[in-house]
Specification:
The chain has 344 residues and is of the alpha+beta class. Helices cover 33% and strands 29% of the residues. A hairpin with a 5-residue loop joins β12 and β13. It is globular and about 55 Å long.
Amino acid sequence: MVNVYLFNPEHDLALAHGAHNYTAPPFARQFRHDLRLLPAWLAPAGAYIAVPDDAPLDDDSRWLSDHHLDITPVPISQIADFGACRIHPWGWDATLRHQLLQAGISPDDLPTDAQLDWIRRLSHRRTTIAVHQALGEGFSPCPVELDNYDDVMAFATAHPGCYLKMPWSGSGKGIYRVIDPSGDNHVPRWIEGALKRQGSLLCEVGLDRVQDFAVECECRDGKTRLTGYSVFDSDFHSQFGTGRVAPMQELHQFLLTRYPALDQVVNQVLNVLDGIVAPHYDGPLGIDMMLYRGENGNMALNPCVEVNLRMTMGMVTAAMGSRHGLRGQFSIAIDESGYLIKLT
């Protein structure tokens, strides 16, 4: 069966919208267009990658060849010509399903409405609360979900440096770090707008961050399987900055030297996800984690900062390092021509 990969980075925004008629804002549409070939790093040799109908196929083919990727670009309108195929998007949502149906893809090759409902439900950030509760005490403070403006402001006042997170958002979007709500005039408007759009906020105590990283997995047949690690840095508001590209064993060892109990904690998290996520979802899964300094200065772990039921930038950097033999720092920049990938 033909494998077709597709980049739809507006996925998290579409989940927040909920219906099949979401229209992404201009910046998200440009991001999707400019980085349309990004999933080629994850695709197996001989696969296809869906590109917009107006994409320059010759240029795309040349870029793929120059990077030694045995992947063929295909316009979205021509995917249906393959007949039965297996679609691998960045993430599944109702909007993408509707777009692919309009492009002539058979419903048999797409997730059902019930499956999409589970993806949206489990992509809500309250899943991190369920994971923390299942793991028990001994880790970072458990996030709190609040749906009342006064309660959110009280949390932010009591916890300077806290993070307020919209239920559906990704790659650091929809996150506000509040240092002092009384001295930040933007905070009240942001909270009110977020509650109006998404109904609640996940509130997290700020921690003394040492290192961001992720456990990359795949859910299949009711089990969660570890596929690798990614190590990255994020900015003040937890937006993705740079990712380390190196062999998987090197990344794993880097993390172990800082937190020797990592492997046993990862196994605990995978067992928890076997009960919460895997029965309802097949596909790529990324769990963002964080090393931080505890109150006594010791190294501590937040075992579940995010749960992403989709492909992630960490999966891309992991594949670059382990499958394609590259090294360096991965980042996404923007210049006069648009968004582009850098490996330095």
